[in-house]
Every structure is written in structure tokens, then in C-alpha cells.
Design goal:
This protein is of the alpha/beta class. Strand 1 and strand 2 form a beta hairpin. Helix 7 packs parallel to helix 8.
Length: 419
């Protein structure tokens, strides 16, 4: 299967656009795009361009030079829009992921005497759990009473779609917000954002999403699906560097409404910003949620990656990403069949619509031993306590041959353990 795809792999040329980690004069296999994407080779040039503008123009770099800083974020929004399935005016490149989620809850979580509950996935990324707990407490409420978690059924690893929809329906009179992940960070399960949004709206609730593991990984149509808001970091699949600036999506239906928000100078409408008047007047787009002067040096790193995504095309990226994870799962199933190994099981759903790039393996025993050996063989994967190895071959810089190599290393390791 993989050879026919790789023979026609139009994305193979993009591998050379990234720096691949090297050890002992040999390229390593980097399967950690789900944690920190690799550095685009143009990132340094983009950063140096910003530094040169600062050098040459000082503060006038906001208005002068090849890429004036005042409008830098608008170019990023245009490049990000196809990744999100959004209009550029629905995109705000700003802050960090959890900061943006706090800002969104300030606007869209409005509990009253009847509707005050938040429905979310059990096992959400810890930062999201802390976010919800603190937002609930700030409103004088008890998280244990307010936050509803939907869990996998007993004996299962992933959450059934019908259970999510049923939980929304069962609590339809009390839910103020459904806050869900696009892809579960632990299992790699992809959730049906469209159906969850529809169910939330039918229940009279707001639908918001953490897309940290979804943006740049799975197909998104946030505007078409009528998602109210979504936030994501850009340092995973979007390769923008450690601590990269994040992104928020706010559906355009809210742009001209009087929505509660935490305000700041950069969110003031652009044509009047420098009048320095009292009384906040938000910009008539997602820009109205900006707060602070933007980190242009971080913008430069993001621009380097987004230009590659734009050139590669999202359809090709999604198609190859799905093919790579499908091939990886097929090899893992073959290993289980041929070795009779019951040491691990595949957590990630095998259905192509329920997975992205990441494949998670749960080990019944010897997991850490397997992981250490994989790392010693020059393969980047990661370990998630207590017993999971996550592997994420990504379409822009990974090759199918690297999946073959991983499969062989895993097979050899399991044989040594059995011996």
C-alpha cells in the first residue's frame, strides 16, 4: 500500500524544507510532530527580517519596511484560514493556547440560574481541566457540580460518539457550554466536531473546541460547521517553535454582537486605536479579541511554517497523513499477528475518520523498556504515563520508509523481550 503512495508522493519535496535532527552523522526519525514540530529552514530568515526592520526603523517598523508589523498578523490569518476552514477575519493569532481559552470562556461561558454546566471529555489535557476548574470557581461555583465528563465505556479506551451526543441531550436543559478536544492527546482519537457542534446548539449551548492536536493534522471546516470558537497552539503540527504564538477562531456571527470580553489596546478598532479614547470599541472581526501588542518575532516563525502549508495544499497534507497512520497501524497489527504479542494494544481507532497522524500504543508491561530501546535506535517518540507510547509520522517531513524502520525496531525489541 505505502509503496504505491510514496511513488506518487507530491509532498516528499517538502522534507528538505525542514531541519531533521541528526546523530552520529545520520538523520534521526522524528515522529514527534504531535509534540513539537521541526524547524522550517526559512524561520531564521523571517526572524532576521524582523530584526533588520527593528535595526533599521526602530519603532517605525510597525509602519515601514517590507512587512510592517502593524498588519503582520493579517497575513498570518490569511495563511491560517485554509487550515482552519475559516474566513481570515475569523482568525486571531495571539497569546498562548490556554490564555486564549480563558479569553473565550470569558466571552462565551455565561452561566445563569438554569444553564451553568460545562460538558467535556474525561481525560482532557490537564491544562484544559485546570482552565475549566478555575473559570467555574471565578464565578463562585463548584467544579464538582458544574463540570460533566463523558468517559469511555468500561473496558474501552475511546469515547463513543453516540455517548457524547446522548450526554449532551440528557443534560440539554443545564448545559451552558460544550468544550471538547478535536483530537484526544492521549489516545489520538479524532472527534466529530460537526456533530458535537450541532448537538450543542440543539441543546441551546455554546460549542467550543481545543484543537491543539487537530490544527494542521485533520481536516477542519470551522465556519461551515458553525463552531462558535476554537483555540489551538501552533508549535505541534504547525511547526512554529517552542512556546509559539497561538491562534483563536471566533465565528463571524459574533463579530458585531455585544459580547463580553477581556479588552486591551490591540483589540480596539484599528481606525481609531491611536485616538487613545476611553471606552473600549472592539474591532469588527476576531481582531477585537486581541489584547496586547503582538510578538512579531514569534509571528515570523509561524509565517515560515504557514507558507509551507499553503504551498503544499491542505488536501494533500490530510491525504498523506491519513495514509501514513493507516500504514503504521497495519504494520502494528501484522506485528501482533506474526509474533503473537499481547504486550501492547493499539489505543487509536483504526477508522480513517477517527484518527489523524498520531498512533498511541498501550503496553501491558515492559513499555518503558520498549520506549528506551526505540529512542536508542534514533527514533523520536514519546512516553505518556503510565503506559503509552505515542508515535506521529507527519506528512510534510516524514517518509513511509521511516515507518518501516520503526516497525522493524519494534519487532526486534519485542523478540528480545520474549526471549
Amino acid at each position: 500500500m505505502h509503496s504505491s503512495f510514496s511513488d506518487n508522493d507530491s509532498l516528499s519535496v517538502f522534507r528538505d524544507r525542514f531541519f531533521i535532527p541528526n546523530g552520529n552523522g545520520k538523520e534521526k526519525i522524528y515522529f514527534l510532530g504531535n509534540s513539537l514540530g521541526l524547524q522550517p529552514k526559512t524561520a531564521r530568515n523571517h526572524m532576521e527580517s524582523v530584526l533588520e526592520s527593528w535595526h533599521q526603523f526602530g519603532v517605525e517598523g510597525f509602519f515601514e519596511g517590507e512587512n510592517p508589523w502593524m498588519d503582520y498578523h493579517q497575513g498570518l490569518a490569511e495563511l491560517m484560514a485554509p487550515i482552519a476552514g475559516a474566513y481570515p477575519e475569523e482568525i486571531a493569532v495571539m497569546n498562548a493556547l490556554t490564555v486564549n481559552l480563558h479569553l473565550m470562556l470569558q466571552s462565551f461561558y455565561n452561566p445563569d440560574n438554569k444553564r451553568r454546566k460545562i460538558l467535556c471529555e474525561a481525560g482532557a489535557f490537564p491544562s484544559d481541566q485546570y482552565l475549566m476548574e478555575s473559570q467555574v470557581r471565578l464565578r463562585g461555583l463548584n467544579p464538582a457540580e458544574i463540570i460533566i465528563e463523558v468517559s469511555p465505556r468500561e473496558g474501552e479506551d475511546t469515547i463513543r460518539e453516540e455517548d457524547i451526543l446522548e450526554a449532551i441531550h440528557q443534560n440539554k436543559d443545564e448545559i451552558a457550554l460544550v468544550l471538547w478536544g478535536g483530537v484526544n492527546y492521549y489516545t489520538g482519537q479524532v472527534f466529530n466536531i460537526k456533530k458535537i457542534t450541532e448537538a450543542a446548539h440543539n441543546a441551546g449551548a455554546v460549542a467550543g473546541f481545543d484543537l491543539a492536536h487537530a490544527a494542521g493534522n485533520i481536516e477542519l471546516k470551522l465556519h461551515e460547521w458553525d463552531v462558535d470558537f476554537a483555540c489551538w497552539c501552533n508549535y505541534k503540527y504547525l511547526n512554529s517553535g517552542p512556546g509559539a504564538v497561538a491562534t483563536a477562531f471566533i465565528h463571524k456571527k459574533f463579530h458585531h454582537q455585544s459580547v463580553n470580553r477581556l479588552a486591551g489596546w490591540w483589540g480596539y478598532r484599528k481606525d481609531q486605536r491611536f485616538l487613545m479614547k476611553k471606552g473600549f470599541v472592539p474591532g469588527p472581526s476576531a481582531d477585537g479579541w486581541h489584547i496586547s501588542t503582538p510578538p512579531v518575532l514569534l509571528f515570523a516563525c509561524l509565517k515560515a511554517s504557514l507558507e509551507i502549508f499553503y504551498e503544499a495544499g491542505m488536501d494533500s497534507i490530510y491525504r498523506k497523513g491519513s495514509a501514513m497512520s493507516t500504514y503504521l497501524i497495519q504494520l502494528l497489527q501484522k506485528i501482533q499477528s506474526e509474533t503473537g504479542s499481547d504486550i501492547f494494544r493499539i489505543l487509536t481507532p483504526v477508522d480513517e475518520h477517527a484518527k489523524g497522524c498520531q498512533v498511541s500504543l498501550l503496553f501491558k508491561h515492559s513499555g518503558r523498556l520498549v520506549f528506551d530501546h526505540i529512542i536508542s535506535e534514533g527514533i523520536f517518540a514519546d512516553w505518556r504515563e503510565p503506559d503509552v507510547i505515542r508515535v506521529a509520522p507527519v506528512p510534510l517531513y516524514n517518509k513511509f520508509e521511516e515507518i518501516d524502520k520503526f516497525s522493524q525496531v519494534l519487532t526486534d525489541t519485542l523478540e528480545k523481550i520474549k526471549a
